[in-house]
Amino acid sequence: MTSMFSSVKMGDLTLKNRVFMAPLTRNRAHNESAVPSGMAKIYYAQRASAGLIISEASQVSPMGKGYVGTPGIYDETQVRGWKEINDAVHAEGGKIFMQLWHVGRISHTSLLPDNQKPLAPSAIRAQAQTYTESGMADVSEPKAMTEDEIKQTIADYKHAAQCAKDAGFDGIEVHAANGYLIDQFIRDKTNQRTDNYGGSIENRARFLFEVLDAVLEIWPAGKVGIRLSPTGTFNDIADSAPEETFGTIITKLNDYNLAYLHMVERFPGIGADNKDIKIIEDLLKLWNGFYIANGDYDAMRAQDAVDAGHADAITFGRPFIANPDLPKRLEIGAELNEPDQDTFYGGGKEGYIDYPFLEDSEAA
Ligand SMILES: Cc1cc2nc3c(=O)[nH]c(=O)nc-3n(C[C@H](O)[C@H](O)[C@H](O)COP(=O)(O)O)c2cc1C
Q: Is this prediction's pTM over 0.90?
């Protein structure tokens, strides 16, 4: 039996356990400056016992923003804000990766500079909603990116990767999951381009690999991970042949020797059927590196997945929101605090930095 709670090597890092914290958008950053809030320092430091923290998704540029109150990683003030967070996590003995994000078409003109239309591979509006300053709204109709805009966006990823390095992160995760920009290029429902970035799987994957090549000019491969969601439908995304599309991508990713592949296997509120689970298992047969599994894992399923060789580590999302000391609780089989969905997105310290640690509950 491989212990979930002993150290593990992943890429260039040695991590203290296999209980990782999933990327979790919490919409508490300063909306205009996109600087993380002071509370975020406490929030992340409280969770430093995770083997690895993956930060909330952070936009690589102002055009990459899709929701109110999400942090950015493209200017000096944001770098300073993140540096304080990273210093606090490191002081507690934790490790933290930055999740680099561009939402593409999942945005609203009111969130973008000069009320521009969101960028996307093709001008196809998503049947999806986003959270704006005036509440939930249907996402806006996007514009199809020109080749110059594609080049600029790749340069934005590279710049953000440098900012993440300057801010003292231990590595970066390229967010290519959940129906955001990179995923929009990958899948044929959202990519109907007829140039080098559309059509064949190789062309649809071109944007992803150009982004990877760009960030790898800043970071060694052993400190770069990637997140995919081959069976996901969130944000109105779909592909006519996910096994083939993602099979081609994962096979090619092997050549990159990345720190890890991270997949969302199940989505909150959406039951994964057997077909989806089989797709993930088949795709994993192609992958030679470190694998992080995510989605609805509890202590037992996580341990089983590690023992069966299905995964090298597990990211926990909602359990980590409610349990800052999740690894300890899982290890000793302690009761878990229940997450409060009403405080997931936005708000103050309630439901953010006030979930009790085990010691607090015992003292009470
Ligand atoms: C409040 C909330 C915010 C999320 N934000 C992100 C995000 O920023 N980036 C991302 O890739 N996934 C995000 N997700 C998805 C989670 O990382 C994870 O895939 C999902 O919660 C399933 O894992 P769980 O069952 O352990 O919660 C979010 C999920 C929740 C509930």
A: yes
